[in-house]
Specification:
single chain; mainly beta; eleven-stranded parallel beta sheet; twelve-stranded parallel beta sheet; 8 helices
Length: about 625
């Protein structure tokens, strides 16, 4: 079949024709030309992106009009030997010294008026915002703070699990908060159990008792009543100008449009490359359920430098896996949730391939596969330094579990031979690969490591969208919860041949592979999960944990890195778990038993190798050698 080529180069002539000698300057121009050529010749089209920076403040959008014809592909790829970067940052220059101290210098530079960002990169490294010291907690404990006490109780709320007290904010005696710049830009951060929540300050006033920090609503309410883990005191507070220099840090004064950066004495920021992300998304593939975007390939491209503003504006009440409580729903507490934003979104997309791409230095998630998207693939990609989830597949509302229209089902997508590390770099409750309500996700031969919480998370709903939800031993469905006779769309996933190591580095109650709910036909097999714990492991293959009977198994459940191997959480069923290799974890396979025994018995768990190292007799070297990324 004939193949036609189009060329793009940053800084090229805006009136170009798209040839190699006269390349387009934008992807938008090339996209239009590619469709014109397809309509005329009906053949494959390759758009070559020459090396350099392609800067975005709003995302490149592909619609059904940009699809390739069936039987053909339109490929957007790096020119051989060159590296194109699609980025969402502006470069900051014009630095001046604001002040000099014995150990550090504070630099400042003007930014364009109206610019807002929560992220900064200096010489390609993520820079930390100013923050207080971190108050540590353990396992599922909330932070009990001497500096911040919840203040002005307004009532209480039953969230389906327990009665939760509600407060307006905090009382503190720290005078810094009374005179600080832009108090509405301060963010309180909470690391509790498996969650990482953020809540902004609304106002600061002085009272007879002390300084009252009124917190942003409804975020503060949601953080106090969400299911699972609620908050008390903050783990730390960040984004205060007054903390510049105490531990480095940077601060963007949005009122002055000035960026401040503290650097160690003797280091000149004028000699460094400073990138301030301003775009929240770089690429959106947006079709319709009766007209999806189809047959596009993105190869060898690097997507980098985005920000994520909503946590600083409305807050971030994390329920689990960087999925948020819906602020509009306080009653159906297990039914409706909000996803966090990703840099790349596939929405009603089919046959889209990302091959050999890199997703780096992102202030949100990397890739979101949602709303009826099917048969899409990520292969041989690297995802690193991601604030949120690496890859999200599926959606998280009760209506997504039981859609009225089958065209809304996210199905038959795959993540293969990808290297996913250092996701959750900011939102610590994030995971490497998250699958919500979806069908047939294939997660095969990837390496996932250096993650603050879980590596792979499959399923959603805690069993409330499954048949027999009334057979729970604890937290039974409330009378107004909907009951279902049919199984949800979650089924037939395959998690095979992955190498997963060094996860749960910061949070608790997660695993190399984590599951929720009934997922018939799902296979978790021949994965290597290692390096999440260095103590004495649970000696048996499966720990069946009955949390509804009280505090059992505490010798293991409160250990850092618990459980760490494969975690079959509430209502997990219908799965085959076999031939996995698990060692250096607190518990190899943990089953959280909250339903009648038939749900546990619906799983097949067999032929797994636990607590054996490569030097031990019986270690399955052949299976281990077949895990991780294969040659492509």
């Amino acid at each position: 079949m004939k193949n036609l080529n189009i060329y793009v180069a940053p800084g090229a002539n805006p009136g170009a024709t798209g040839t190699k000698e006269d390349p387009f300057s934008t992807l938008s121009a090339a996209k239009k030309k590619a469709k014109e050529l397809q309509n005329e010749f009906g053949c494959d089209i390759t758009v070559y992106l020459r090396g350099g920076e392609y800067r975005y403040q709003t995302p490149e959008i592909f619609t059904a009009e940009d699809s390739a014809m069936d039987g053909t592909k339109i490929t957007y790829q790096a020119y051989p030997g060159e590296q194109p970067f699609l980025g969402g940052a502006i470069r900051i220059s014009g630095w001046e010294k604001e002040s000099e101290e014995e150990a550090y210098t504070i630099w400042k530079a003007k930014v364009p008026e109206g610019v807002y960002s929560r992220h900064l990169y200096i010489d390609g490294q993520r820079a930390a915002r100013t923050k207080t010291g971190i108050q540590k907690n353990r396992a599922w404990e909330t932070v009990r703070s001497d500096t911040f006490q919840r203040y002005r109780k307004t009532g209480s709320h039953f969230n389906g699990e327990k009665q939760c007290d509600l407060y307006e904010g905090y009382l503190t005696q720290d005078p810094m908060f009374l005179t600080c710049r832009n108090p509405q830009d301060i963010e309180f951060v909470y690391d509790v159990g498996w969650t990482h929540s953020v809540c902004p300050v609304e106002s600061v006033t002085e009272t007879k008792e002390g300084i009252f920090l009124k917190m942003k609503q409804p975020c503060f309410k949601d953080c106090q009543i969400k299911i699972g883990m609620q908050i008390d005191g903050p783990s730390y507070v960040e984004n205060l100008y007054e903390l510049l220099g105490t531990d480095g840090g940077w601060y963007l004064d949005r009122q002055e449009s000035v960026l401040y950066v503290a650097q160690p004495k003797g280091i000149s920021i004028e000699e460094q490359t400073v990138e301030l992300p301003v775009a929240e998304q770089l690429l959106v593939v947006r079709g319709e359920k009766d007209r999806p975007v189809k047959n596009l390939v993105f190869r060898g491209l690097t997507f980098r430098y985005t920000t994520f503003l909503n946590p600083g504006v409305n807050g971030h009440p994390d329920v689990q896996a960087n999925i948020l409580k819906d602020p509009d729903d306080d009653a159906l507490t297990y039914s409706y949730f909000k996803k966090t934003q990703s840099c790349i979104v596939l929405d009603h997309a089919e046959g889209i391939i990302f091959d050999g791409c890199r997703f780096l230095h992102l202030g949100n998630g990397a890739v979101d596969i949602q709303h009826g998207s099917a048969d899409n693939r990520l292969m041989y990609c690297e995802l690193s330094d991601i604030s949120g989830n690496g890859i999200q597949a599926g959606d998280f509302q009760e209506t997504d579990a039981h859609p009225a229209d089958s065209r809304e089902i996210v199905r038959d997508n795959s993540v293969e031979n990808c290297y996913i590390h250092n996701a959750g770099a900011e939102f610590k409750g994030s995971v490497g690969i998250l699958c919500g309500y979806a069908k047939g996700l294939r997660i095969i031969h990837n390496e996932l490591c250096d993650l603050p919480y879980s590596a792979v998370s499959l399923g959603w709903g805690w069993g409330y969208v499954d048949p027999d939800s009334d057979t729970r031993y604890s937290y039974k469905p409330l009378p107004h919860f909907k009951r279902y006779k049919e199984e949800s769309v979650c089924r037939e996933h395959e998690v095979r041949g992955n190498y997963i190591h060094h996860v749960l580095t910061q949070l608790h109650d997660g695993a190399g592979i984590y599951t929720l709910g009934l997922m018939p036909g799902t296979k978790i097999m021949q994965n290597l999960i290692v390096g999440n714990y260095q103590g004495s492991s649970y000696p048996e293959e499966v720990m069946v944990h009955n949390s509804w009977k009280g505090n059992q198994d505490e010798a293991y459940t409160r250990q850092k890195g618990f459980p760490g191997g494969i975690y079959m959480d509430e209502a997990s069923g219908g799965m085959e778990v076999r031939e996995n290799i698990i060692y250096q974890t607190v518990v190899p396979i943990h089953y959280h038993n909250i339903m009648e025994e038939k749900r546990f018995r619906s799983n097949i768990i067999r032929d797994n190798t636990i607590n054996k190292k490569p030097c031990d007799h019986g270690y399955p070297h052949e299976i281990a050698a077949g895990t991780g990324i294969t040659a492509g």
